[in-house]
Amino acid sequence: MLVIMRKYIVYVGDLIFTEGAKSMYDNYLLIGAVTPVGRYLLQELSREGKKVRVLLPEEADASECERAGAEIYYGNTFDKDSMRDFFKVDDPRHSVVIDVDEIANFSGEKNLDMRRTNVAGTINVVDQCLKYKLGRLVYLSSAYALGTPPAEGETNFHFDRTKVDGDYAKTKAEASAYLMEKISLNKFNAVLLLPTFIMGPGFDKDSEMGRILNKYLEKGVTPVDGGHAFVDVRDVAAALIAITEDGERGACYIISGEYKSTDEFFTDVCEAHGITKSVKQASRLVTSRKLAKLVDTYYKLSRKDNPKDVYALFRDRPDTVFANTVSDVLPAAPAKKVVDSLKDYKAGTPIEEEIIMRPAAMAETAADPVEAVAADDQADAVEDLSDIAGGDSEE
Fold first, then answer.
1. Strands 227-232, 197-199: parallel, antiparallel or unpaired by DSSP?
2. Average per-residue pLDDT in the chain?
3. Backbone phi, then psi, for 104, in 5-degree steps?
4. pLDDT, tens digit (0-9, with 9 covering 90-100), for 322-349
5. Phi, psi (5° rounding) for residue 206?
6. Residue 390 backbone class (left: φ over 0; alpha: ψ -120 to 50; beta: rest)
7. Quick check: 167 and 174 in contact, CB under 8 A?
8. Picking from 104-108, 136-140, 375-379, which range would have the lowest pLDDT averaged per residue?
9. pLDDT tens digits along 34-52
10. For 158-169, how does the pLDDT look when each residue is reduced to its tens digit (9 = 90+)?
11. What's the CA gap between 213 and 377, in Å, rounded?
């Protein structure tokens, strides 16, 4: 259970919190309450008896919010008029908006819904907060919205969508830049959290992580060279609550989690699923820039999963490592290890008994799923590509 107070760090169960002084906010307006991060925030705020108001799309399942005792409003962030009533509170100066609503997609394919939610939706939320004079906005951004990791001790972060790669990073950079402009020009009281890739319990099989694990465990798609940093959803929730209470106006806090190379990550996956085997990587031909068109055509015509697309996350700035700065407001926070997040994801670790929905079970069989499913197909693909390329494996 998470108790939201201030000044001293206390550890209870999986989450981290501070105690020692009363919260400065009377109303908590939560956007994205049905996302994994939002669900943890909702449960912890409601356990402490906080007055929580949530904004849900019309089609959302509101049962968790009802059980948590939240005040429910319906609307979409990309439709400003639909959420007008959500922002009307009796005491706006002592109210805080926490916006964790986002779509994270690293496939490389154009995703208009992601842009509509991550950019248009965030801009509307910022504008409504200013219009109704809300006390503070806490925004879930992304470390990958930064062009390069900031220098040690740097506090002034700059966001530029032209300096980052990938549509997800671009949407987060654009939205964060708009928010920072309002902080500067309007003296808007807002604070940003910049996590690396969020994972752990509460994500379903259709999430980015769910798709990656499915392709590896059930489809046997061989990983490509690369790496990424991962942070547990529970650590993100704890950090959001910490900066809500103690974050400085206009500050950006990075929560970096744990960096893993592709080999290390899938070794952890195997451990989490009780699989004993070494992790093999696809031929470098698959990610060769010289052969990109040829490789893409091959996988398209053969109707096989292209490892480069399946594991695009690990190819997105694979050597970038961010320093953790959220420790300024959340000192000595014991970040969860990737292998533990994977184990909890697999087990469907609940937020609260009969509250959080268990994610779809990953396939577990006596046979090794990586070798048993499509291993021969992957080997054939590499052989075919090698023949076509004449044995050239240079990048």
1. parallel
2. 83
3. -115, 115
4. 988 888 788 765 789 999 999 999 988 6
5. -90, -5
6. left
7. no
8. 375-379
9. 999 999 999 999 998 999 9
10. 999 999 988 999
11. 18
Q: What is the pLDDT of residue 109?
A: 75
> Taking CA 254 as the corner, what is the angle to CA 101 and CA 95, rounded to the nearest 5 degrees?
50
Alpha-carbon distance 7 to 263, whole Å?
A: 40
Other beta carbons less than 10 A from residue 282's beta carbon: 22
Tokens of 227: 């790496």
CB atoms within 10 A of CB 63: 11
The CATH code for residues 8-218+228-260+321-347 is: 3.40.50.720
Report the alpha-carbon distance of residue 3 to residue 19 in Å, rounded. 7
Task: Name the residue among 25, 46, 323 with its Cα closest to residue 191.
Answer: 25
For the chain, percent of residues with pLDDT exceeding 70: 81
Residue 225 in contact with residue 284, Cβ under 8 Å? yes
pLDDT bin (cut points 50, 70, 90) of residue 12 is: very low
Token pair 């669900």: residue: 39
**Placement of tokens 């052969």 in the chain:** 291
What is the per-residue pLDDT for 165?
87
Secondary structure of the chain in HEC code, one letter for each residue: CCCCECCEEEEECCEEEEECCCCCCCEEEEECCCCHHHHHHHHHHHHCCCEEEEEECCCCCCHHHHHCCCEEEECCCCCHHHHCHHHCCCCHHHEEEEECCCCCCCCCCCCHHHHHHHHHHHHHHHHHHHHCCCCEEEEECCHHHECCCCCCCCCCCCECHHHCCCHHHHHHHHHHHHHHHHHHHHCCCEEEEEECEEECCCCCCCCHHHHHHHHHHCCCCCCCCCEEEEEEHHHHHHHHHHHHHHCCCCCEEEECCEEEEHHHHHHHHHHHCCCCCCCCCCCHHHHCCCCHHHHHHHHHHHCCCCHHHHCHHHHCCCCCCCCCCHHHCCCCCCCCCHHHHHHHHHHCCCCCCCCCCCCCCCCCCCCCHHHHCCHHHHHHHHHHHHHHHCCCCCC
Return the domain boundaries, the chain: 8-218+228-260+321-347, 262-316+362-387
